[in-house]
C-alpha cells in the first residue's frame, strides 16, 4: 500500500494523467503536495510536493470558461499533464499552497504561430 504525503486533504476528484496512454484515477490536493493514484493499478501513482513545483500551466479557452487540461512543471522530475472534471476547483485548491506567480496561462495557438514567425522557439 502506498503512503500518502498529505496530512490533510482539501480536494479529491476523478482525473486523467495524460502520458501517451491515458491513465485514469483520482487526484488529491492537500497540505504537503499534489497526488495522483491510478484506479486499476495502485502501484501507479505520482506524489509531487509543493516545494518541487515550479509552475502550473493551464490551457485556457473561451476567456476562462473552458480549461481542458493543466500541466505541472517540476524542478527535477519533468512535466505532468492532467485533465480533471472540475479544473476551476482544482486550480483554486492549488492556489492555497502555491504563490500566484507559479500559476500561468498556456500560450494560445496564435501566440505560438507569432513566436515561430519571429524566429523564437
TrEMBL record:
**Entries under InterPro entries matching the protein:** DUF956
Q: What is this protein called?
A: ManO
Q: Which organism is it from?
A: Lactobacillus psittaci DSM 15354
Amino acid at each position: 500500500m502506498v503512503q500518502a504525503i498529505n496530512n490533510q486533504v482539501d480536494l479529491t476528484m476523478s482525473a486523467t494523467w495524460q502520458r501517451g496512454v491515458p491513465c485514469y484515477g483520482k487526484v488529491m490536493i492537500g497540505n504537503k503536495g499534489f497526488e495522483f493514484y491510478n484506479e486499476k493499478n495502485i502501484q501507479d501513482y505520482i506524489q509531487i510536493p509543493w516545494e518541487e513545483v515550479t509552475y502550473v500551466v493551464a490551457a485556457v479557452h473561451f476567456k476562462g470558461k473552458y480549461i481542458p487540461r493543466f500541466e505541472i512543471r517540476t524542478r527535477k522530475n519533468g512535466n505532468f499533464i492532467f485533465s480533471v472534471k472540475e479544473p476551476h476547483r482544482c486550480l483554486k485548491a492549488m492556489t492555497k499552497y502555491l504563490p500566484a506567480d507559479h500559476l500561468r496561462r498556456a500560450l494560445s495557438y496564435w501566440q505560438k504561430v507569432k513566436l515561430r514567425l519571429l524566429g523564437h522557439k
